[in-house]
Design brief:
Length: 114
């Protein structure tokens, strides 16, 4: 009985922590690029880099390439800044300019001034 209660408590706590946990890469991104909560970047969460699930958008793929080139799985501010001059979504605005404007560097429909 005590074992069952212990296991139930651990599982319940684990689910609560998982529900409020923020992915490490997202935390690094938001520390590097603080954004207004009502901007596209502020609302995007995982879709800054992902289309759905683990599938990456074009910005996420450029980030992945930069991480592979450095042979790391840890996202850093330096890695983020290394792809600021790229235009991942080919909308005419550099990634860094989009992020600072609050628009999404992986979505060609989301660009500064639109």
């Amino acid at each position: 009985m005590k074992l069952r209660l212990f296991v139930s408590t651990v599982l319940a706590f684990g689910l609560m922590v998982g529900a409020i946990a923020t992915p490490k890469h997202q935390v690094t991104f938001l520390k590097t690029y603080p954004s207004a909560k009502d901007s596209a970047v502020g609302k995007a969460k995982c879709t800054i880099c992902h289309v759905k699930g683990k599938e990456l958008n074009v910005y996420g793929k450029d980030m992945q390439k930069a991480m592979q080139a450095k042979k790391t799985k840890d996202l850093t501010a330096d890695l983020l800044k290394s792809i600021e001059k790229l235009d991942s979504d080919k909308d005419g605005a550099a990634n860094g300019d989009e992020i600072r404007a609050g628009t999404l560097p992986g979505d060609p429909k989301s660009k500064p001034g639109s």
